[in-house]
Amino acid sequence: NDFYAKNQRNSSSANHEGDFGVSVMELRGLMELRGGEAVVKIQEDYGDMDGLCQRLKTSPTEGLSGDVTDLEKRKEAFGQNLIPPKKPKTFLELIWEALQDVTLIILEVAALISLGLSFYQPPGGDTGDSGGEDEGEAESGWIEGAAILLSVACVVLVTAFNDWSKEKQFRGLQSRIEQEQKFQVVRGAQVIQLPVADIVVGDIAQIKYGDLLPADGVLIQGNDLKIDESSLTGESDHVKKTADRDPMLLSGTHVMEGSGRMLVTAVGVNSQTGIIFTLLGAGEVGEEEKKEKRVKKQDGAAAMEMQPLKSAEGGETEEKKKTNVSKKEKSVLQGKLTKLAVQIGKAGLVMSAITVIILVLYFAVDNFVLQKRPWLTECTPIYVQYFVKFFIIGVTVLVVAVPEGLPLAVTISLAYSVKKMMKDNNLVRHLDACETMGNATAICSDKTGTLTTNRMTAVACYIGDVHYKEIPDPGVLSNKSLDILVNAISLNSAYTTKILPATKEGGLPMQVGNKTECGLLGLVLKLKRDYQPIRNQIPEEKLYKVYTFNSVRKSMSTVIKLPEGGFRMYSKGASEIVLKKCTKILNAEGEPRVFRPRDKDEMVKKVIEPMACDGLRTICVAYRDFPADPEPLWDNENDILNELTAVCVVGIEDPVRPEVPAAIVRCQRAGITVRMVTGDNLNTARAIAMKCGIIHPGEDFLAIDGKEFNRRIRNEKGEVEQERMDKVWPKLRVLARSSPTDKHTLVKGIIDSTLTDQRQVVAVTGDGTNDGPALKKADVGFAMGIAGTDVAKEASDIILTDDNFSSIVKAVMWGRNVYDSISKFLQFQLTVNVVAVIVAFTGACITQDSPLKAVQMLWVNLIMDTFASLALATEPPTEALLMRKPYGRNKPLISSTMTKNILGHGIYQLVIIFSLLFVGEQIFDIDSGRNAPLHSPPSEHYTIIFNTFVLMQLFNEINARKIHGERNVFDGIFRNPIFCSIVFGTFAIQVIVIVQLGGKPFSCTPLDLEKWGWCTFLGLGELVWGQVIATIPNSKLRFLRGAGQLTKKNEMPGDEDMNEDNEEIDHAERELRRGQVLWFRGLSRIQTQIRVVNAFRSSLYEGLEKTDSRSSIHNFMTHPEFRLEDSTPHIPLIDDTDLEDDPALRKTPQSLSRAGSQPQSPNKNNNAIDSGINLTIDTTSKSAASSSPSSPLHSLETSL
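Structure (tokenized):
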């Protein structure tokens, strides 16, 4: 415990501990005990829980007084409920990291050599051998080296600053998330919501289903409390907690069922979670862990997902970490970009190497061979200087070629989006979720609270044999029924649920707690009764037994002891579930009468279905009396929850949010299917789905409930089959009465499906603890900020701070915007890259000197990388983004339109620059700048080239704002002030600083107005040329199709989808000329015959072979070898029944690949054919070969 001593060494803490009857160390020791040991320890040391409360100067019922000085004392003595975050990287560290970039290092070295050499005077320097430079210029030789260093510094500073602001934003986001988490605490006998960080030792916290415990504590009183402690102990079963058997509650664990009150005994670094964090070294340990921790440390109690207690067995901890941190595969966009950057980088490297080699060879051949000069030893430094210059040019080509701006653009774009999404009520927890959202093709949404307002109001009821369409006057009802009903509702609901008077004049009363219960309490108030006096009469401690609501029971029951002896149990829950358990019902007089099965059916038809068809949720209230002796076995739930007496059925309405129908229309327009997954009954769900516009009458859709869903997707063994799933999900729009597992199954089924040529990208909304698995499985999980439990938020990627469906649509818009911003930047960047590299390369080869100098290239690099990424990545989204279908996961980054633009503008720029380079001096009537000696002053000629080049880039940046071939590139340009300021700023710097005043370092000379006019005119030509390019239809440019595909290497495994119905014309089909097609057809005929023979041979084995060995698609997908079989109906000679129970074979024409299912035929010809069509493919590339449209296999399929 030395750690602890370090923490609290100051004397003041010791004094304050003296104020309380127990020290931090004692409490820490207590919290390390479990179960029975802890109970014994409390009894030995403190007598009982009240004794412990007295020592901590708190009251088990009223909590702390909330007096400020008292709270401060407690914080002094027992610490705060915070785990100190790791120190952020300093700006200097970030600069150091930015300097690690290889290209920059090469440049720095080159610049230093150049600097060193420029100061070296060869002995006998006046031999005149060094060409016609006068002293002044030789003196300024150092400038180039210095300028390179300066521009490197510039790039580094900008990168570091970006990283720093990103880190800062991320921390801001963290603290936002941490402040968001509030907890219910009793202070001064009032239940209040406190931020987790303000909880102190001695607080009485109210815990309920779905909470993530923020501190360690001891249970004072609990109802049916079950805790998931897997995050701390690795124990996956839920642990039952009771005040007398196992009262220890630990921070970071999840409440899975029930409710209760706990006394907080350890907070912050002294809680179990905190201790583990200090072991992991929240302060100083290795960087890697830190990063993971920042990502996971999502709430005050800290995410304990990463480390189980047994840290001693390091292996397990490591495993746990790995699995959790990579929650999703690398984001699609980043995957594509990294690949692209690497490809471009390689090309750049080759180009720069060639440039250097050509320059060096040319120099050597020219000087020593053609002019037959001897190698003078005293001139060596001069030659070396030339070589260094060539090297610098080569490196510069490389610098311009490598798009370091790509990662920067992604970061800026994502960071900017995340910041703006905050305003749209999306709190993004994982950056890449933002971009994944743009590709979403399906949204599985909850109904309650997301599509509806989550303000439940009772609007109809059935009581005393009468169906009231609106809430009746209490005078109409018999007093007996009324009393039972009011008692049943008031007692059998969480006491934390209340209806408070409206805060604003004329506003609606505030509903606190569970909304359905609020609806029922509202019914009590409408019946002119009050629930509070009844609750005061029987406070929560006096409730005899509580069966809390969970997704299995779908009902809640509370048992109370009657004053005259005996027990009464009140029950409420989903009407069809509770009514099944009723054997009696109260009549008009309030007396129970028999309730037969046929009465139930009639009730369902006459009462429940009509209510449900109006979109009402139906709740049934019932009760049952038990004798005092013998006392019933309360744990035997099935017997207890039976033979109930129905009191009434209430119809509760949850109106659709006004903005939802419009949002859903926008989703459907954007090519996103919205599905509703709800626990409500089918008719209610269908009615709400109609109102939202998820389904329209007369459409072909499926609306089914959980039972039917499972019946359709599971085989006889009860296993989910993908093939059955594929028959259900495409038309499924409403899934009612679904359990959390159904939701998870549906999401998994849609994601794993191979029906469409693109893998589906699924977003899911959830608020309950049980939605965790579905939220984690989905590509993007949305948790509800208001109604959501901590567990749901923990599993999610984005938190909707206003619980509103239309915020999801905003997220889609931002996601697509990120993708488009990156594409815009790419289009701009690649144009510059192509042009700069070609100019430097050809210029160097033809004129021995790159027309664009190193420093100029670096300036261009700065414009195009850093500034352009800022300008183009911060375009605000427009509604137009929602007018198109989502890009798939494997659509190439560079579309054919973009390729057209890149090539088009590249050609324009090259033509202009080469014209200027070779005939510029005649056009402008100036001295030629070509073939200038080593340190010659900058020429006007080259200045014009450089200036024109930069201006063309600037105007092309405006062109790059549109990537879908739109005409008006200025559309909405003033909505983006960053863009405007960057373009004007760059222009100003170019004019004033670089060209007019830049002088030697930038190799520029000032230009007069006429030349500036021409430069600007040539730059403006870009905009005109852009219009010309836009008129060329893509269809005319066939070759572009291939160009766009460059970036499409096989994506992550499992993303190649089976493109069976690929509409595009199959190039492979064309390339396999007619002759080949015929040859393949012949082969496939032979194959068919061989197969028949094999079938006969193997029918002997077929019977013996276990069919289930290939009953799953995955099994036979893993065979490394594919056999080609044609997709004609299987030959009846093969034993038919065998095919029937082999779902894999019925799947699709893809059963072509029925690998390894028959014994290898002795006929070796078979294999010869296989290898002839290159079918023995290794596993990794299997799906690519079997399905990509350009593979011979695919065309074969089509020709077959």
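The two ends are 75 Å apart (CA to CA). The chain has a mean pLDDT of 76.
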